[in-house]
Design a protein that fits this description.
Layout lengths: L1 H5 L3 H15 L4 E7 H9 L2 H4 L4 E8 L1 H4 L2 H11 L4 E5 L13 H6 L3 E4 L3 H10 L4 E6 L6 H14 L4 E5 L4 H11 L6 E4 L1 H7 L6 H6 L3 E3 L4 H17 L4 E3 L11 H10 E8 L3 E10 L8 H4 L15 H5 L31 H9 L4
Parallel strand pairs: 1-2, 1-7, 3-4, 3-5, 5-6, 7-8, 8-9
Antiparallel strand pairs: 10-11
């Protein structure tokens, strides 16, 4: 408890805020937090309102549910309607709108959709129900991919032949590259995602200073964590230094987690992937290697090519690229709310629209 309280210490937070103001002054700077968890923490603790007036904090594409393409959502829903298929998924996915309906609505019509807390729960269910085909929806970045890879290895070791994964996993660095290459937003620094960096390490972000001249500081998720990273990022930006630094060294090391990286490498290989709001980003997806093809749902099932379209009026894709902020979407807070979401940015616990609605919408 004392450890956590240290990263919510008001006196230290006040000191860091003063340092950020002194560093930035009247300079116009823009930092992007890649991670949706950072966006929610920044909004929850009012950090945006405490920043210098010319320092902008932009939300990035670090919500894995949000960047899942409409086509992939529609194919997952179609897969749930295959006879004898049990679709296992994390909770956020069931409420994401497909072109016609959601997985939640598919379940109400008779599809067997189950929320699990671990992909290993899905393996266990498959082992206990050999008459069913259990498909786990693999959605996430490097944070959740090792667990999904472990589930495939577990199924293989136990001889569970009725378990497959529909891999929609994505690598985060290509998403950041896509934003910088597009040039739609001007950035002076990047707040690196803490959970992802615990897997890929600080070294996973060195391409930003080396190739783009962009400073990056990896941050944790408590208020002081975030303020420390913003202070360090401001220092680098003001001094014109392009470096990768770590403000979350209690969880992140330069080389990352070798065991997690090894298991990901064993099961997954790079593939092109379709991101909502971006289109296809080369070598940004995690496809299941041929050696484990028996556990690849896309190989086992003939997934139909369903006609997909984005929700009319939804600008979730623009939010994910940092081009607009959620309130600039015409649906925000009106046709689109957490109770009646039109797009995934309002559904997910890591979605920027959800964060803005929860922490910035005035209470009536």
């Amino acid at each position: 408890m004392q450890f956590v309280e240290a990263f919510r210490d008001p006196a230290l937070a006040k000191q860091l805020i003063a340092e950020i103001h002194a560093l930035v002054g009247d300079r116009a700077l823009a930092f992007m937090e890649f991670c949706g968890g950072h966006t929610h923490a920044i909004m929850q603790f009012g950090i945006r309102q405490l920043m210098p007036p010319h320092l902008r904090l932009l939300s990035g594409p670090g919500c894995p549910v949000c960047v899942t393409s409409q086509r992939d959502i529609d194919q997952a829903i179609a897969l749930s309607q295959v006879p004898d298929v049990v679709l296992a998924t994390f909770g956020d996915m069931v409420r994401v709108p497909g072109t016609s309906f959601t997985l939640q609505e598919a379940a109400a019509e008779g599809a067997d959709v189950r929320i699990v807390y671990s992909p290993l729960d899905a393996v266990e269910y498959a082992r206990e129900h050999p008459e069913k085909q259990v498909v786990f929806l693999g959605v996430g970045f490097e944070t959740t991919a090792p667990g999904v890879a472990a589930s495939i290895l577990t199924a293989h070791a136990q001889g569970v032949q009725n378990y497959t994964v529909f891999s929609m996993h994505k690598y985060t660095p290509p998403g950041m590259r896509a934003i910088l290459d597009a040039g739609e937003v001007r950035l002076d620094g990047v707040l690196g995602p803490g959970h992802v960096s615990a897997i890929i390490g600080l070294n996973g972000w060195r391409f930003l200073p080396e190739e783009y001249g962009m400073p990056v500081v990896v941050a944790g998720f408590e208020p002081v964590d975030i303020l420390l990273a913003i202070r360090d990022l401001a220092r680098l930006a003001v001094q014109g230094q392009a470096r990768a630094e770590n403000a979350y060294n209690r969880s992140v090391v330069p080389e990352g987690n070798p065991a997690a990286l090894r298991i990901m490498q064993q099961v997954f290989e790079e593939a092109d992937a379709d991101w909502r709001g971006f289109g296809v980003i080369p070598r940004s997806g995690m496809a299941i290697r041929p050696a484990y093809r028996a556990y690849d749902a896309q190989a086992r099932f003939a997934l139909p090519e369903v006609p997909s379209r984005e929700p009319p009026g939804c600008r979730c894709g623009d939010v994910l690229r940092g081009v607009i902020e959620p309130p600039e979407c015409p649906l925000f807070g009106k046709a689109c709310t957490p109770d009646r979401p039109k797009g995934p940015c309002m559904v997910s616990d890591e979605g920027a629209c959800s964060a803005f609605y929860l922490y910035q919408t005035p209470i009536a």
